[in-house]
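ingest -> fold -> write
write: protein_1
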Amino acid sequence: MRNCFEQRECRSLIVTIACCLTSFLFFSLNYQLKYFEKGRHAIFMEINTKMKSSEISEESKNEFPLCRSNLLDKRDYHYEELARKFCNSSKLIPKNNSRKSCHLLQYTTKHVVTCFDALHQEQITRMHLNVRKISKRSNKLHFVFIGDSRIRQQFYNFLKLIPNYDRDTKPPILLHNSPFFHGDKIEVYSSILRLRISFLWRPTINDSLVGTIKHWTQSEENKRPTLIFLGMATHFMLQMNGASYGLYEERIRELSAILGQLTDFSKVIWLNQYPTVELYGDTDSHNTDVHSRKIHQYNEVTRKILKKQRRVRIWDSSNQFAEEYVRGCAITFGRFTPIYFDCQDFIHTGYVALSEATQLLYNDICNAKIRHRSNQ
């Protein structure tokens, strides 16, 4: 009898325990489902909030006017934020806070074509006021890049956004961002775009450069360049060229007066020299002659002299891109070689930094010529 009683008591206890476990599992599952639903709802709310804030941010961004003046001079603006997509998300704030912040435009070939059409029409209108008949040669925009291999880099990057409808290049070289082409002259023509872009190899301020500038000041208006981008300094630092700071200062003073005459007819932009990647080299290596500290000294004397010519613009706002490139090289050098980096080439800035600089250049010369909202 006792065994039977104990068996019935054991079965009852097992059933009770099973019921308790079942109830606990159902409660636990129900609690987790409710918690999951609350979590999922919270996640959806967070995503929805971010989407709305993103839309608001985009709307707010569009309320800012397009930046339209002095974008090449870093003394006039500072950047409110720097993001991966620089031109899409950065705003510029005037340092004097005299007007509302503005934002930059990410230029595409469509924007560039619109800009060139507007510049061409502006040029034709101006010439019609001065002469009755315009020759076919004057019926083209003419951009000229004059200087050393650093200017040639800017020339190549400037071309990357220009569509190749009917491009004719003389000499017929492969256009890429290469410091190894050392021809004295590259000419690019497009009849459809009514455009001519030239590169002239003038690594120092010599008689050839001075003669070219003087020739333009004395030429007819329809034979002068529309825009001139120039810059040269590093070759004056080389031992094989005398490494004479005094000679550079003397030559830049001579050139300054001639550039002042040229600005009566053409827009002139002087490219500030970018910092270099600091590498150890042999005593006679170029990187012992050319380094960032010396470049800064040459930039300072250039600004001091050229500021007397008010219409000669100094392009130094892109230095921040070159500085970030130099820092990137300091971090990655010796580990791996990232795409678009060539840190062993201490003098030529990387492709990504130059591309951002080119975007800033296009914003400067084109933003006032296009309608922002209709071309985004």
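write: protein_2
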Amino acid sequence: MRGAAGAGRGPAVVAASMMVVGVGSSLGFFPGYFAAAVRDDLGISRAQVGLLVSLHFGCTGLGSVIGARVTEKVGTRTAVVVDQLMVATAAWTAALIGNYAALLGAAVFAGFGYALANAATNEAVAAAVPESRRTLALSAKTSGVPLMATASALLVPWASDRWSWNLILMAAGTVAAAGALVSAAVIPDIRTVHRGRGGGGSPLPRGFWWFAVSAFFLIGSAQPLFSWAVPYLDEGLESSKAVAGAIAGAATGLGAVCMSLTALRADHLGRARRVPLIVGLCLVVVAANLVVMGGLTLGLIVATIGLLAGFIAQLAAIGIMHAAVVDRAPHAVARATGVTMTGYYLGALATPVSFGALVDWLGTYTWAWLVMAVGSAAAAACFARANHVGEG
């Protein structure tokens, strides 16, 4: 039963969920941060590095609907613990085997596990926090991803210059194992109450699939800001790895802080204004991608400004999106999350590898950033349509 299981434990549940989504997504981000080291060690291309990211998040997308149904059956606590153990297993296995095939397998295995984490943490937070603080709570939970990315951007490029990428994965696996223990102690055990014909869950609003399409374009056009920022600044603008990592870390850290500030504003505006706010933020991401592209001719400072704006806008949009999903399907949170995140992670599958392949093919980052700007414009248009879901 929802509600009672998480009542009175809101801050602890949000904090644990923040840790879970950060650790759960880590194997999807690390390849971009130790790209140079793994390319030198294994002799792989940029496209092959991008494929690791794409596979991880693509498998999360493919597993999201099933993950939501599993979460409804086994409960939020079990789903989260299983995810953390899958990440730990994937990271240690890839580190010990030490070849590209093992990295591919780890990306797939941990990616499917992450589908459980998304559905379970949304369900847990929605049950533990009142509606008046829903956007703030879900944005804080989601900020675990950029906070992890911040720490990774600051530490992983530096560490990869001194130690092997294998040791970095071992450290991530150890953290994930610890995350399983914390989750078992803190995450409430919530199971969805089934209603309707044949014992099925509550139906989603008509046209809810627009949220999945919108999420596809949102993350598809913004994911390279995470996955390719460090290589872009290093190779395209001839910055050092340390400086590139510091810029990416500062951008993700600031984005995480602004996520919460924007969430407070979204909670104040209420549920009717949340999706229009996402539309505006998508338009900011359009401009940010173009400014990042302009850094090739205008320099590092301009590219940094674009990265800051892009991280802030896309992270704020993602946090509000989770609240909008709960708003539109309050009695089927796990299922609505599964549908939305299917589109979201298919977008995350599409662009990291295609972005890298486009740069390999054309020998420049210009056209890749331009394509991302077009994708952000499509996200704005689709969210505007999604705002009418459930009407009439």
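write: annotation protein_2
The chain has 15 helices and no strands.
The longest helix spans residues 333-362.
pipeline exit 0
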